[in-house]
Amino acid sequence: MRIDVVSIFPDYFAPLQLSLVGKAISAGLLHVAVHDLRHWTHDRHHTVDDTPYGGGAGMVMKPEPWGEALDALLSSDDNPDDNRGDGGRDDTALDDTVLVVPTPSGHRFSQPIAQDLSQKSRLIFACGRYEGIDRRVIEHARTRVQVRELSLGDYVLNGGEVATLAMVEAIVRLIPGVIGNPESLSEESHSEGNEGLLEYPVYTKPPLWRGLEVPPVLFSGHHAQIASWRRQQALELTRRRRPDLLPRQD
Ligand code: JAH
Known about the structure:
By secondary structure, this protein is of the alpha/beta class. About 30% of the residues lie in helices and about 15% in strands. The strands form three sheets. The chain has a five-stranded parallel β-sheet. A two-stranded antiparallel ribbon has the order 3-4. Strands 8-9 form a two-stranded antiparallel sheet.
């Protein structure tokens, strides 16, 4: 997979070189390129924002730098993987590319969406700032590639950068070969294997710590009892914290 990120704060993405995402890059499973939107400005002050038509607080990101940035990224001569030189389809074809725009007014990002995006050959993340990006940028981009405007949850950040980091991590860990033990993927919260429930509580040694015991069933060796205790715990936790995840009770 290839991931491009466009932002006015490219330094935010230094952490991508670390840990799991960094390992995926070293292993050759992932190519990440971070781009400064100001590269596609032409005025002396590298202006990316302007006042909103219709009035209102704050500033709006100008369409021209975004238009040029997306033109450049979507043209095959910017594409480091398109080195076949035969003009044929490469592994970052437009029909397998998604432009992701993190925004508080987007559809809610979720594990199924992460799963879907992890199968794409190319993702481009457009990180907005201020009050957002001129709407025509998204409208125009939709004529070129699939666009997904996505929100992590009902809170407002100062821009799309932190949301992009979260989404990239959620997506990259689902790429085959990125996580050593694929079983740990299907067991965790929000994956199919856990019936869509929250994860049960987990324990390790020592058996008694600061006066607190590990539930005895966990060293009973009765695998069926352990499984049923865990399912009970998962159900109860989900009922208390996230009743919205349970099948409707009517
Ligand atoms: C804020 C552009 N739901 C997380 C999230 C994602 C993006 C933004 N805020 C929150 C955001 C300002 C400008 C994007």
